[in-house]
Amino acid sequence: MREREYVPPVADSKSKNKLVRLSPLVPPEVHARVFANAKASGVSMGKYLAELIMRDQLDASGCPVWAREAFGEPDQGELPMTG
Fold first, then answer.
1. pTM to 2 decimals?
2. Average pLDDT, the chain
3. Helix or strand or coil: residue 28?
């Protein structure tokens, strides 16, 4: 994967709490699952995803502990795009 530099986003002009937009593309079944889980939790999809991300456990190198199993080793090259 090519090295990317972090560029801080600009707060959404409609947000009172200076929130920023996170707009990943996901398969429809993932979107439906996030919606259902957020609704059952009584929160927005954004709050639900933010909480999941903040609770992510990292290994000593800063990589999520589940990532190598899901994506393989970091230097194996880019994964094929799907969908």
1. 0.75
2. 89
3. helix
